[in-house]
Structures are given as C-alpha cells and as structure tokens.
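re: ur question from earlier - yeah i can do the single chain one, its not a big deal. heres the input i used so u can compare w yours
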Amino acid sequence: MTASNVRRRHTGLPPEFARLPMRMVRAATAAQVYAHPRAELARLMDLGLLHRVATGFYMAVPDDRVGTEWMPGLEGAAAGIAVAAYSADDAVVMGVSAARLHGAIPRALATAVVAVPTRHDPIRLADRQAVVRFVVRNTARLDAERIDTELGAVLVTTAEQAVLDLVKRPGLGDAEGEVWPAVEKLYRRCDPEVLAEIADAQTMRTTLVRLGERR
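and the output i got, formated as tokens:
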C-alpha cells in the first residue's frame, strides 16, 4: 500500500466503502476495515463522507455531493439496505416503491417496499420519518429489471409485475390513494401477454381479472 493510500485510509473514505453495492456500508463492514469502527464511522459522518440512513446502515455520499445536505431518496435508501442485508440479486423493489422508480407516483412516500427471500422486521430510517417494509417473495420468480439510480443499479419489478402487485395488495405501502393512478400509468406500458404469463406463473389470475374489472 502506498503512502497516499495509507493517508486516504486514515483521513478519507476507504475505497472498500465506495465499491460496496448501492454504496451502503454496514457497521459490520466497518469492523473489517477499522480497529475502532464506531469512532471511525462517526468521524466519516462528521466529514460529510457518510450519511447514516438507519441503525447500523450508512451510505457513502456521492463524491459530487460531499459538503452538501445530501440525503438519498427513500427508494434508493431502502434498496441499499435490502441489498446490504441480502444481496443485489435477492432484493427487488416492488409495489408503490417500484411505481415510484418507474415514475408512476410523483410525490414522495413515507413507506418503501422491498421483496426479499426471508422474513425481516421493518426498519425505521434515522434521517426522516419513513419505514422500509420487507415482503417475503420468491424473488427469483419475480419479473424484474435493473434500473439505474444515483446509488447504482437495483432490481425493480417490471411495469407488468408492479401492476399486478399493486392491484393484489393496494394497501401495502400505506399509499392506497396513489395506487390506482399509478396502475393506470403503468398499465399503458404493459404487454397484455406478459401480464397474463405472470398471472399464470404466480397464481394471480384473480388479480388479473380484478384489474380488468377496474379498467
């Protein structure tokens, strides 16, 4: 390790942190880098290099936002937490949060929803009045695509999957008033054949019928 790298390790953000998926740093990760992780995390926050999202979860501030009042969007923060807790392939943004990332819900929400393979308690964020809710799904079977965010690419349910999920559980995400307008916007992008295929594969035929009745 060169002298400059040694100085950077002690004074700035460790390169290991910036390379993490979604730039999300867990306290356990810091313990692998520092002998005194709690003190170092506090120092990096004081320098504006880390942003505390929730207990035990810190986000490396993008280089061009250091020194500003930067705060990640709720959906990005939720995705980062889920990816750090599981993996980039096992966390899928769904429901109202998928609708947000697809641009179908314009206003900011106070609940984010992420599909994960095993049970996880909700996580309340430390930087705002918001909560991340985890839904147990077979994430490998969800129809999903990777969408780029300011924090990196994340798996998000497709328009077709999001429409079916929203119709099936409109109250999930505490934003029921936003659901049908979002369904209307997303439906315009949907392929009816893909909708039918997903409904068949995921035992959601009743949901598809309900969607047809509402339209």
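The longest strand covers residues 111-116. not sure if urs matches, ping me
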